[in-house]
């Protein structure tokens, strides 16, 4: 769904890319595995929420969708590639967040998945209390990353909506492949009604297990309350980038701090860090300028900033390209579909850094496609190779996730509506694009069966997530995505996983 932007008036060795198999055929897709539980795991969950969140239904806002599992993310264990860990929102709310974030793991390369025996206590429904830093009604924006020594880190934006503006960025650590999760650490907590820490991500440094980086945007609103916007990819009055890191494997975290301030009534969103082959950091994000500025750009921009000292200091911003998404909707009814339209995705391999995003330029603004840009010098300079790497341009393509295999092959997971023939259902397909020549040419492979997007939870539009996951291991790509599988009367969705090589 396109988000209206506020205006002033509205207040390590490099992986070498090979030129072989430029026109390679489809990848082989393994068995599709359902990762998430069937229905809500929380007793008594209904449209007013479950008792475990501690808030009577009459005090809640919005509608809860029990069994709606959305916004998946996945990571591959570099110490044991057969071990993957994924997380998602469980029981999504219409106005922000979910009853909990759940995490699951596999020890056999994705052939089978189990829920973590001890979940991170990011909200009350997974054991959060005031004593363990998890006393929150809801949680959103799940993320997981795994260090070279196999230690995993999960992150959450946890929040209260019914009671007050209380919300925080939280982290938990697992040392057993995601089977159990340890104590919750607070990176940043706020109770002001006009502030929202939003859209977090986290990256374990693949070159040094001591370092893990957390990053997010911090939205400041002049008058309105921010908390009801939680998890809604809010656009605020001012939105600098904030950052926190551990340098000792999660034993302690440095105080969170601002690393980029775009200025009054401007903001960032979708910050995500990757690490290049020489150990430098590249943060990719959407930089939103609401007025003309020194760069003479306005609107949404794909941008990066770099650090050569593990995040101690950061460079200025380099603009990769404009981000010209027109948003996504049901082509028959016009009902909005909430997608990753304002969130670029980034990946790195050696000195090659890649970004994808939704862009409608090739269709004259009519339909979002998948744009692709590449840097071959560690994120210093960029070239946009295509504004539509997806293969069918007569339909809307959306929510891209990018990853790179150890051999340099690039993968991009995305959805489109090519098989929808009007009316109901809203048939949605999932595709894995892959390139063997650095992004010059692409081949696609279908992943899973079509599903009816109109049976998904409604949260700013039909919603399966602002993002989805694509892991990369020597065995191949590991798509980790959401599908709607309810009815229009009882919306629901599930998280699926597979392997493609």
From TrEMBL:
The keyword Signal applies. The keyword Nucleotide-binding does not apply. Residues 1-24 form the signal peptide. It is an enzyme of class 3 (hydrolase). Gene3D superfamilies: 2.120.10.10. Its EC number is 3.2.1.18. Residues 242-448 form the Sialidase domain. Keywords: Glycosidase, Hydrolase, Signal. Transmembrane segments: none annotated. GO terms for molecular function: hydrolase activity, acting on glycosyl bonds. This is exo-alpha-sialidase.
């Amino acid at each position: 769904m396109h988000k209206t932007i506020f205006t002033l008036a509205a207040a390590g060795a490099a992986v070498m890319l090979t030129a072989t198999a430029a026109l390679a055929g489809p990848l082989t897709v393994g068995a599709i595995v359902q990762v998430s539980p069937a229905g809500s795991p929380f007793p008594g969950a209904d449209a007013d929420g479950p008792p475990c969140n501690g808030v009577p239904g009459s005090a809640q806002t919005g509608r809860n969708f029990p069994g709606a599992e959305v916004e998946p993310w996945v990571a591959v264990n570099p110490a044991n590639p057969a071990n993957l860990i994924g997380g998602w929102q469980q029981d999504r709310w219409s106005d922000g967040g979910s009853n909990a974030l759940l995490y699951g793991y596999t020890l056999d390369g994705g052939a089978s998945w189990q829920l973590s025996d001890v979940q991170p206590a990011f909200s009350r429904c997974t054991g959060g209390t005031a004593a363990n830093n998890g006393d929150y009604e809801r949680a959103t924006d799940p993320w997981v990353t795994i260090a070279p020594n196999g230690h995993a880190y999960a992150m959450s934006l946890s929040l209260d909506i019914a009671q007050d503006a209380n919300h925080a960025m939280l982290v938990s650590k697992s040392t057993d492949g995601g089977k159990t999760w340890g104590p919750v650490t607070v990176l940043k907590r706020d109770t002001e009604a006009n502030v929202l820490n939003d859209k977090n991500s986290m990256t374990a440094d693949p070159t040094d297990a001591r370092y893990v980086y957390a990053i997010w945007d911090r939205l400041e609103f002049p008058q309105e309350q921010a908390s009801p916007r939680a998890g809604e990819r809010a656009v605020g009055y001012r939105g600098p980038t904030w950052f926190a890191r551990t340098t000792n494997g999660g034993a302690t975290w440095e105080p969170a701090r601002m690393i980029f301030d775009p200025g009054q009534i401007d903001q960032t969103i979708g910050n995500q860090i990757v690490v290049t082959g020489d150990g430098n950091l590249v943060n990719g994000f959407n930089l939103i300028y609401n007025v003309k500025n020194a760069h003479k750009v306005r609107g949404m921009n794909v941008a990066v900033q770099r650090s050569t000292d593990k995040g101690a200091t950061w460079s200025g911003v380099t603009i990769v390209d404009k981000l010209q998404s027109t948003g996504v909707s049901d082509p028959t009814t016009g009902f909005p579909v909430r997608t990753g339209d304002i969130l670029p995705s980034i990946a790195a391999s050696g000195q090659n850094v890649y970004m994808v995003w939704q862009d409608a330029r090739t269709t004259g603004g009519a339909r979002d496609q998948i744009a692709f840009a590449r840097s071959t010098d560690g994120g210093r300079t960029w070239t946009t190779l295509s504004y539509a790497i997806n293969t069918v341009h007569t339909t809307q393509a959306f929510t891209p996730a990018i990853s790179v295999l150890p051999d340099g092959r690039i993968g991009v997971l995305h959805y489109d509506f090519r098989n929808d023939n009007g009316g109901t259902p809203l048939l949605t397909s999932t595709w894995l694009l892959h390139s063997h020549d650095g992004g010059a040419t692409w081949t696609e492979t279908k992943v899973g069966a079509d599903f009816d997007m109109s049976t998904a939870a409604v949260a700013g539009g039909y919603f399966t997530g602002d993002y989805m996951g694509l892991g990369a291991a020597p065995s191949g790509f590991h798509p980790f995505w959401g599908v709607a599988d309810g009815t229009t009367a009882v919306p629901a969705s599930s998280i699926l996983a597979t392997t493609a090589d």
